[in-house]
Specification:
The chain is mainly beta. Helix content is 0%, strand content 66%. Strand 4 and strand 5 form a beta hairpin.
Length: 67
């Protein structure tokens, strides 16, 4: 089983900040992304999916600008 780690891109510096480990499911509805880990915990973020690297098990999310 391959589980991934999700990262958010920093708005100013572009650094990756970890959001969730052991991601087993991703749901996208509009600009809302719900990440579910192996234990069923959910992390909900606003943004867009930037990339999914299945070899490195990394998910990158670009967070939406807050208004």
């Amino acid at each position: 089983m391959c589980l991934s780690t999700a990262y958010a891109l920093g708005e100013k510096d572009g650094a990756k900040n970890m959001l969730c480990e052991y991601v087993s499911n991703i749901k996208i509805l509009g600009d809302t992304i719900t990440l579910t880990d192996l234990m069923g915990r959910e992390v909900v973020v606003s943004g867009s999916l930037e990339s999914v690297d299945l070899v490195k098990n990394a998910i990158t999310i670009k967070r939406s600008e807050k208004t």
